[in-house]
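In response to the reviewer comment on reproducibility (Comment 2.3), we provide here a single inverse folding case reported in full, input and output, so that an independent group could reproduce the run without further information from us. The structure tokens appear first.
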């Protein structure tokens, strides 16, 4: 009996219990609304200060610091110190985790239109912000929203990526990216391509090194412009022309992408 008990204590059951505890700890980090809001804010791929994240989450600086320390110790955030300033950003692979959880969130809890429509918006500003995020945004360091999915579909149609045996970058795709990104391929062990489930479109968009390189080029070349207040992207006329020429992506006009009316706002008078 003693031998059996010892074997059980160190056997598969113990390993499963340990994994369960680790998973519960990770889930607990994101079970708090303030910490979840902080992680969503960091999905723009930039490093934020603690005070900026406090404002984004709508909490006091001291409260934000407590939450940030938990997220750092839990491995979801990394920090960089420059002089007196502390900058924080999502750790590797944390962005994909946050995006997947957002896509799996119940309809009443998600923060975007479509199958995962969030709580009803009660102002034109909030409705406009939601529409802008759904149209085009960053998912950490790659394109997401309707834009990200459209680009992924176009790359598939043109044979730049293939889904036949899992997502792969084709030779044509490798050559195409080498004309946009420098250096390509990047000197990194990061996968060249990864699939990331888009939380507003509920379809995959391109992530990995290829997704990051394409997003970086889109920003540097002026195809898209970052928002100062969120991770929404504004597609420029230059970007529309480039995406049409490069990938055959026909995007609606800027007004059609983000136009918001009183019909989108709960409680608005007709």
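Designed residues, in position order:
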């Amino acid at each position: 009996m003693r031998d059996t008990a010892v074997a059980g204590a160190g056997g598969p059951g113990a390993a499963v219990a340990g994994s369960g505890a680790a998973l519960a700890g990770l889930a607990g980090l994101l079970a708090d609304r303030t910490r979840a809001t902080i992680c969503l804010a960091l999905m723009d791929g930039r490093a934020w200060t603690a005070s900026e994240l406090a404002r984004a989450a709508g909490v006091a600086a001291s409260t934000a610091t407590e939450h940030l320390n938990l997220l750092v110790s839990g491995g979801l955030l990394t920090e960089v110190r420059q002089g007196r300033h502390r900058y924080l950003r999502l750790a590797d692979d944390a962005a994909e985790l946050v995006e997947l959880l957002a896509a799996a969130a119940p309809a009443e809890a998600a923060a975007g239109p479509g199958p995962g429509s969030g709580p009803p918006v009660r102002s034109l500003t909030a409705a406009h912000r939601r529409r802008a995020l759904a149209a085009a945004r960053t998912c950490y360091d790659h394109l997401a929203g309707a834009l990200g999915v459209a680009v992924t579909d176009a790359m598939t149609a043109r044979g730049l990526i293939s889904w036949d045996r899992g997502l792969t970058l084709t030779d044509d795709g490798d050559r195409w990216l080498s004309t946009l990104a420098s250096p390509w391929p990047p000197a990194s062990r990061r996968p060249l391509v990864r699939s990331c489930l888009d939380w507003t479109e509920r379809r995959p968009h391109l992530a990995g090194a290829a997704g990051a390189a394409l997003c970086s080029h889109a920003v540097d070349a002026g195809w898209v412009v970052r928002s100062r207040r969120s991770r929404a992207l504004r597609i420029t006329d230059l970007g529309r022309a480039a995406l049409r020429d490069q990938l055959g992506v026909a995007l609606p006009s800027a007004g059609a992408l983000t136009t918001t009316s009183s019909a989108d706002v709960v409680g608005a008078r007709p």
